[in-house]
């Protein structure tokens, strides 16, 4: 392998730049050339490439977002799009790819590999932490800290006004952010897609909170929650059934994806980037690099895509106990 392409794809996450830096510099360390591919698979189709050397990634380890930009490419889902991408890679003498992204990005990489036998290694980058084969995805730790910081501020105003806040956090299909940030911020209840607590239990819990003398309540809801009502409908429901509560809604949205990566995410990105390139140089392909039991290990990309990341159900009990 003489030339490796690197791209970021799907929703950006803090730590992606640190991973790009690690990939580029590991290539430089091993005297392999590295090409940055802009706007994910879309840039691969459009031939948006730029040679990168060790000095082209100076001072990016601390930056949120991705200097390579990102996209969710519809064209790459078509055979024609992938053929165009393959031709561009061949014309630029790129002979392997490092894909930094989430499940959709890995699915694209896998299909591409199956069609063209093109070596691909995945680095898990998403704030959702919903990827099988790693305990932490890049950006998840930073997002947790961002969410906790914001909920702390919401708590200030909630307790000043004796209010109940429904706070919606990201996590398209997963409750990792809600569950962990919820415990970290001392939430009274946490609603996640993996566990449907039901409306009755929610009301019951809110009644108990009030009766125990709490001056404010925070309910954290993952956006992918399955309770059957969105945050505004939940507010209306509580307004109707518990008029003693003054309810407000706060949707944290995309601010959760931005900001300076935490030290944890920077170190993880560096470890994953080194391993991704060295795995390709060892002649291996079709793996995702991930952190399992504090070791950087390989998981076949196919398993990473098909497997389901599990939340730690013991945390639900912990939350129930510490929020009484
Ligand atoms: O996958 C990361 C994520 O931030 C999810 O939590 C969220 O559902 C989704 O991306 C939002 O995507 P977009 O930025 O395309 O609206």
Automatic annotation (TrEMBL):
Binding-site residues for ATP, renumbered to this chain: 11, 72-73, 102-105
Binding site for substrate: 126-128, 163, 170-172, 223, 248, 254-257
Compartments, as annotated in UniProt: Cytoplasm
Keyword terms: Allosteric enzyme, ATP-binding, Cytoplasm, Glycolysis, Kinase, Magnesium, Metal-binding, Nucleotide-binding, Transferase
HAMAP family, alphabetized: Phosphofructokinase_I_B1
Quaternary assembly: Homotetramer.
Name of this protein: ATP-dependent 6-phosphofructokinase
